[in-house]
UniProtKB/TrEMBL annotation:
The gene is LOC115889229. The active site is at Y49 (proton donor). Pfam families: Aldo_ket_red. The record marks K78 as: Lowers pKa of active site Tyr. This is 1,5-anhydro-D-fructose reductase-like. Substrate binds at H111. Gene3D superfamilies: NADP-dependent oxidoreductase domain. The keyword Oxidoreductase applies. The lineage of its organism: Eukaryota, Metazoa, Ecdysozoa, Arthropoda, Hexapoda. One of its GO terms (molecular function) is oxidoreductase activity. Residues 17-301 form the NADP-dependent oxidoreductase domain.
Length: 332
C-alpha cells in the first residue's frame, strides 16, 4: 500500500483508508473486518459517528486472531466540536480510546473549526429551543495546545484538523509548537480545492479527501436527521466523463474518482459497508490515469459550488465567527 510520510512524526499514512461515517454498528463491524482482510490498514472514524465501539471490537478480533498487530494499523479519530473547550479535550480523547480499545490513535483531528456548547447529558451538541445549535466561541488555537499535550503524553502520534479553510490553517500553523500534520476536507472531482492544495504543499501538511465519491446517500441522511435538503445533490459517479474513463480502463467510476485523487498524492477515505465495494475501493494500484484523462477529470471542478458539506444542516452555524466556508442565504 502506498503511504504518505507525515511531517513531524514521520508516520507513514496509508493513502487509502476506510471511511465509516453513517455506518451502523453491525455494518461497520463487518466492514472493518472485510477491509482488514482486503489489505486496508487505515480506518477513519470520529467520536460523533457513534461507531468507535464496533470498530474497536472488530480490530481487537483481528489482532487477537494473530492476523496483525496494533502497530500495523493507522487509526484516525476526531475531537467533536462540542468537546473542543481546552478542559474537555483529554476527556473526549480518552473516551474515544476506550471505545476503540486502544492505548493511542495514530491521528487525532479537530473535527471542525467552529464549536457548539456541550449537552452534558447526551454528550452531543446543545440545541436551542428554536432548533438552532448553541454556538460556543472557542479559539481553536487554545484547543490545539491541549491536543499538543496529548502527543507528549503518547495518547496520539500525530495531530491535525478537519474542515479548516486556508486562513484558519495558516493561523493555526503560525501559532503552534507541533504543526498540523494532516488537513481532512471534502474533496472530489466537483470540489478540487486547488488553493488548499497549494497552501498544504507549502506548509507540508498532508491532505485527506473526505467524501471522495461525492457521498451518495448523504442527502437522505441530511433530510432524515436534520430536515435539511441540498438543492441538486450531485451524482459524480454518474457523470458521463467519469463513466467513459471507467470504461476505458475497465474500472468502476468509483475507482476512477479515487485514483484521480491518489495519483495526485491525496489520501482518500471512501466509506462502504458493501464487501465488493470495500475491495474495489482499494484495488486502484494496478493502473495509472493518462494525462488526457486527468485533464478531463480536472475540468469537472466546480470550485466552491461543488461543496456538499456546507454544514448548513446545523441550523445557525453560519453565525459562528469560525464558520469556514462561503456564506449563502439560508432557506427556512
Ligand atoms: N471530517 C469530516 O467532517 C467528514 C465529513 C464527511 C465524511 N468524512 C469521512 O470521509 C468518509 C467518506 O465520506 P462519505 O462517507 O461522506 O462519502 P463517500 O465515501 O464519498 O461515499 C460513500 C457512499 O458511497 C457508496 N459507495 C462506496 N463505494 C462505492 C463505489 N465504489 N461505487 C459506488 N458507490 C460507492 C457507499 O455506499 P455502500 O456503503 O452501500 O457501499 C456510501 O453510500 C466518511 O465515511 C468519513 O469517514 C469526514
Amino acid at each position: 500500500m502506498k503511504t504518505i510520510k507525515l511531517t513531524g512524526s514521520g508516520l507513514e499514512m496509508p493513502v487509502v483508508g476506510l471511511g465509516t461515517w453513517r455506518a451502523q454498528p453491525q455494518e461497520v463491524e463487518n466492514a472493518v473486518n472485510v477491509a482488514l482482510e482486503s489489505g486496508y490498514r487505515h480506518i477513519d472514524t470520529a467520536f460523533n459517528y457513534n461507531n468507535e465501539d464496533s470498530i474497536g471490537k472488530s480490530i481487537k478480533q483481528w489482532i487477537d486472531s494473530g492476523k496483525g498487530k496494533r502497530e500495523d494499523l493507522f487509526i484516525t479519530t476526531k475531537l467533536p466540536n462540542f468537546g473542543s473547550r481546552p478542559s474537555d479535550v483529554e476527556r473526549f480523547l480518552k473516551l474515544s480510546l476506550q471505545r476503540l480499545q486502544t492505548d493511542y490513535v495514530d491521528l487525532y483531528l479537530m473535527h471542525m473549526p467552529f464549536s457548539f456548547h456541550l449537552n452534558e447529558t447526551t454528550l452531543s451538541p446543545l440545541v436551542n429551543e428554536d432548533g438552532s445549535f448553541s454556538l460556543d466561541n472557542v479559539d481553536f488555537v487554545d484547543t490545539w495546545k491541549v491536543m499538543e499535550e496529548q502527543v507528549q503524553k503518547g495518547l496520539v502520534k500525530a495531530i491535525g484538523v478537519s474542515n479548516f479553510n486556508a486562513e484558519q490553517l495558516q493561523r493555526l500553523y503560525n501559532n503552534s509548537e507541533i504543526k498540523p500534520a494532516v488537513l481532512q476536507v471534502e474533496m472530489h472531482a466537483y470540489l478540487q480545492q486547488k488553493n488548499l492544495k497549494e497552501v498544504c504543499k507549502q506548509l507540508q501538511v498532508a491532505l485527506t479527501a473526505y467524501s471522495p465519491l461525492g457521498s451518495p446517500g448523504a442527502n437522505n441522511h441530511f433530510s432524515s436527521k436534520y430536515n435539511y435538503l441540498l438543492d441538486d445533490f450531485p451524482d459524480i459517479l454518474g457523470h458521463p466523463i467519469v463513466k467513459e474513463i471507467a470504461q476505458k480502463y475497465n474500472k468502476s467510476p468509483g475507482q476512477i474518482l479515487l485514483k484521480h485523487l491518489v495519483q495526485n498524492d491525496i489520501i482518500v477515505i471512501p466509506k462502504s459497508g458493501n464487501p465488493d465495494r470495500i475491495k474495489a475501493n482499494i484495488d486502484i494500484f494496478d493502473f495509472e490515469l493518462a494525462k488526457e484523462d486527468i485533464e478531463k477529470l480536472d475540468s469537472l471542478d466546480k470550485g466552491e459550488d461543488g461543496r456538499i458539506f456546507d454544514f448548513y444542516f446545523f441550523k445557525g452555524v453560519e453565525n459562528h465567527p469560525n464558520y469556514p466556508f462561503r456564506k449563502k442565504e439560508r432557506k427556512e
